[in-house]
Fold:
Amino acid sequence: MAYFPMFVSLENRACLIVGGGRVASRKCRGLLAFGAEVTMVAEWFAETKDGAMQEPGLNRIRRRVREADLAAQDWALVIAATNDRQVNQQVAAYCRKQGIPVNVADCREECDFFFPAYCVEGAVVAGIGTSGISPKMASAIRKRLESALPEWIAELEKEGVEDG
Structure:
């Protein structure tokens, strides 16, 4: 079954990422781009091509995740993206019990939501999802959509065109 597409504001909302590898870093960059306050908890962190990921709105904690981390605050969402299946499963189980939306990088059946491939032009955001089945296909469609967007699309923001 397909997932319902929903756009939510994450600006200044607390999001937790358990894991510090490439997948966790990619999801972190996406959340930060939309104004989320991100906490990453991991025993190690992958360095990005630009060096260590140190950005406003990001707090990195270098240690193994604890249940207290999950209970520490009112998380808007949690991402389990470690290379340890058992840890990811435990994070998902805790979140489900607490009613916290969770994305589990290595098990789509445990996900409450998926990250779409998306493109942004001003206030216009388009997301492409495949319910976690084929992220590569979603990315390919995103690239085609980006190239098809007219250059003037950002002007819609100035005109105040209402959604219909």
Remarks:
- The first strand starts at residue 14 and ends at 18.
- The chain has a mean pLDDT of 87.
- The chain is about 30% helix and 20% strand.
- Helices lie at 22-33, 67-71, 85-98, 135-148, 155-159.
